[in-house]
């Protein structure tokens, strides 16, 4: 995919697979293909939004890219260099971090805010004295809108929005280039979501960050993303510029997703036809043959049951995996 863009992508993922062995009766296991043959790239300073229904494998992609899960197969490149050895992973973790979905369970309740934010500094030995450590922690807190007097408090003393700010400050501690944001606003009140999203935008401009932004709220994703990738049942089905995906989705699943996005203008909203998908999402333990979406697709044919459509570039920078899209 790197031929599409002239520059070397900061992150490039090729044919990523993440399979889990699930117990299936006595002494038997079955493979759950959480992520199956997923490829994408993210340029430096760009935000790639990753969307799809719950259980489609979005979070697993984010965690596998950071090697929190060991990939079953595929290749991950950072700045053109393949991440293979333990040393590669350790170096990569100094430049790539994660903001987790739940600001309640992702923070240690026994640690003060100062220690939570300072933990990455301790692990990677990023200071020369206690004074420098303290100065860095206070600087990180200021960046995310926390006061210095918050440093000695514990996570349970804060609201959800403030806890997520602590999580973001912790992610920024190693001065990363790349952050995986795993549904970072889904557990927050709507009024707080906008503040946190705007902060992500400001930090991106100020620090030159690159994001993989995982979410199921399509309005949030459109606001923050340069490009959008759509997943279904462990597979990537479409990827392209944010406006292109919203205004001209090619894959039938993307079309159904985009038809569900609320429109603020009542006249336009009434004119828009909502595409309602029939049936339930199949289990990844018993995925359908051929195209994973065919059991719910209004355009499915025999060809869709026989073979998996190739994830290919249909228009410059616009990729799609569908037999019906020429």
Provide a descriptive summary of the structure in words.
- This protein is an alpha/beta fold and 326 residues long.
- Helix content is 32%, strand content 23%.
- It contains eleven helices and twelve strands.
- Strand 7 (178-182), helix 6 and strand 8 form a beta-alpha-beta unit.
- Helix 3 crosses helix 4, helix 3 (113-123) runs parallel beside helix 5 and helix 4 (130-143) packs across helix 5 (160-172).
- The longest helix is centred in the middle third of the chain and has 18 residues, at 190-207.
- It starts with 10 loop residues before the first strand and ends in a 6-residue tail after the last strand.
- 37% of the residues are buried.
- The model is unreliable at 1-5 (pLDDT under 50).
Structural class from helices and strands? Answer: alpha/beta
- In DSSP terms (H or I, runs of 4 or more residues), the helix count works out at 11
Helix content range: 25-40%
* Secondary-structure element string: EEEHEEHEHHHEHEHEEHHHHEE
Bin the strand percentage: 15-25%
Number of strands: 12
Please describe the biggest sheet, giving its number of strands, its sense, and whether it closes into a barrel: 8 strands, mixed
Q: How large is the radius of gyration?
A: 21 Å
Strand order of the largest sheet: 6-7-8-3-9-10-12-11
Question: What would the average pLDDT be, to the nearest integer?
Answer: 89
Give the CA-CA distance, first to last residue: 19 Å
């Amino acid at each position: 995919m790197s031929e599409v863009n002239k520059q070397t992508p900061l992150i490039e993922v090729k044919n990523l697979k993440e399979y889990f062995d699930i117990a299936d009766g006595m002494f038997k296991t079955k493979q759950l293909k959480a992520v199956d043959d997923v490829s994408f790239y993210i340029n430096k300073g760009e935000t790639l939004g990753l969307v799809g229904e719950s259980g489609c494998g979005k979070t697993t992609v984010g965690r596998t890219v950071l090697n929190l899960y060991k990939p079953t197969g595929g290749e991950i490149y950072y700045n053109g260099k393949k991440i293979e050895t333990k040393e590669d992973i350790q170096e990569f973790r100094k430049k790539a971090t994660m903001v987790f979905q739940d600001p309640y369970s992702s923070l240690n309740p026994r640690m003060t805010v100062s220690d939570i934010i300072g933990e990455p500094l301790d692990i990677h030995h990023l200071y020369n004295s206690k004074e420098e450590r303290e100065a860095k922690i206070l600087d990180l807190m200021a960046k995310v809108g926390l006061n210095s007097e918050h440093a000695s408090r514990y996570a349970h003393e804060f609201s959800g929005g403030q806890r997520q700010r602590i999580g973001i400050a912790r992610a920024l501690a190693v001065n990363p280039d790349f952050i995986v944001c795993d549904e970072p606003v889904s557990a927050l009140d709507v009024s707080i979501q906008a503040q946190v999203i705007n902060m992500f935008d400001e930090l991106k401009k100020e620090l030159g960050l690159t994001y993989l932004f995982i979410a199921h709220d399509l309005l949030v994703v459109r606001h923050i993303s340069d490009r959008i990738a759509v997943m279904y049942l462990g597979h990537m089905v479409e990827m392209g510029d944010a406006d292109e995906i919203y205004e001209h989705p090619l894959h039938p699943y993307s079309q159904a997703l985009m038809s569900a996005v609320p429109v603020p203008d009542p006249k336009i909203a009434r004119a828009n036809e909502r595409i309602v998908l029939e049936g339930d999402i199949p289990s990844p333990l018993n995925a359908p043959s051929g195209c994973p979406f065919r059991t719910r697709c209004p355009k499915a044919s025999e060809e869709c049951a026989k073979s998996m459509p190739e994830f290919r570039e249909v228009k410059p920078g616009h990729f799609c995996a569908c037999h019906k899209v020429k």
